[in-house]
Amino acid sequence: MSNLEVGTPAEVDLPARVGLNGPVFERLDPRPVVLTPRTIAVDGNPAGPGSAAMVQRYLPTRGRRTVGAWCFLDLFGPDDVRGEAGMQIAPHPHSGLQTVTWLLAGDVRHRDSLGSDQIIRPGQLNLMSAGHGIAHAENSPTGHGDQLHGVQLWIALPDADRDASPFFEHHEQLPEWRGDGVRARLLMGSLGEVTSPATALTPLVGAELEVAAGVEAMVQLRPDWEHALLVLSGDWSDGTEQLWSGDMAYLGTGRSELAVHSNAGARLLLLGGEPFDEELVMWWNFVGRSHDEILAARTAWMAGQRFGDVAYEGDRLPAPPIPPVTLRPRGRR
């Protein structure tokens, strides 16, 4: 998914974060972001622009930039897309990151400049590693379902891998961890003795937890990693704090386990990883280390270089103007 926000953000010097060396409970409030207008179809005929596609953006925020190497999190839906075109994201570039697409409802067609053409459905994982540069498009396919609901995440690539050749993976089956009324599906990394087949280039975990109503359970964590929890549906409590659908909290480091209780049942997204200490410049769809690197990526995209071509019926997305400030690398603090 493309970061389609436009405008000229002001530079803000942020204070050092607390809770980097121990457990905390810090709510991460999302901000609504308008992506691209959908097109409403009437009797099979286009009828002009429809409502704007909206997402809730949890990462990055002014308060926190990364959780491990996870550096971007958009939650989209649940949206009723009956009679509409659904997701329509034209070809756009990425560099220096991996994209992770996870659907809760609906289906999305992924096409990229490697020639990949893949429909993704709930319970399946799309992983695209951009490396030096890749382009892709994401669209609801013809005959798509009535609902669209899911998340897209980015993982910042470490310096050793961020200029590598791009690749794409699709995993129809993912391993599961089960215990005490909790089922975890491993999107990325490891949880307990279970490891996802998806290629992780930094030490991390991404897992969807399905929690039965009334369950009180413990999920083992790595205390040297930091973690965060997003409630996709239902409710969660650890006996002290509580989250509802759409709530997210940063949990810090130093936790060897996570208490999981749900009154009505829940679907949770657990993210974590080794704290990512490399300083990053994130702008539009690029993750780099300097202003000049971001500028070079934008220039290449606008010149039709470096990122390749996507088989697509329509124009690709132009890059927004570079802000009239120097983009400075920032750490997780």
Summarize the structure.
The chain has 333 residues and is mainly beta. The protein has one domain (25-273): Sandwich (Jelly Rolls), CATH 2.60.120.10. The chain contains one helix and 24 strands.
Task: Tell me the layout of helices and strands.
Elements: E1 23-27, E2 31-42, E3 45-59, E4 70-80, E5 88-94, E6 97-105, E7 108-112, E8 117-120, E9 125-129, E10 134-139, E11 147-156, E12 167-171, E13 176-179, E14 182-191, E15 194-195, E16 204-211, E17 216-220, E18 226-237, E19 242-244, E20 248-252, E21 257-261, E22 266-273, E23 281-283, E24 286-288, H1 291-302
Domain Pirin N-terminal: 56-155
Pfam families: Pirin, Pirin_C
Family: Belongs to the pirin family.
Description:
The chain has 333 residues and is mainly beta. It has a single domain, classed as Jelly Rolls (Sandwich), CATH 2.60.120.10. It has one helix and 24 strands. The chain has one helix at 291-302; strands at 23-27, 31-42, 45-59, 70-80, 88-94, 97-105, 108-112, 117-120, 125-129, 134-139, 147-156, 167-171, 176-179, 182-191, 194-195, 204-211, 216-220, 226-237, 242-244, 248-252, 257-261, 266-273, 281-283, 286-288. Strands 1, 13, 14, 15, 16, 18, 19, 20 and 22 form a nine-stranded antiparallel sheet that branches. A seven-stranded antiparallel sheet has the order 2-3-4-11-6-9-12, with no helix packed on it. The two termini are 26 Å apart.
Helix and strand content put the structural class at mainly beta
The level of helicity is under 10%
Instruction: Supply Rg.
Output: 19 Å
- Taken as a percent bin, the fraction of beta residues is over 45%
Organism: Jatrophihabitans telluris
Family: Belongs to the pirin family.
Domain Pirin N-terminal: 56-155
Pfam family, one: Pirin
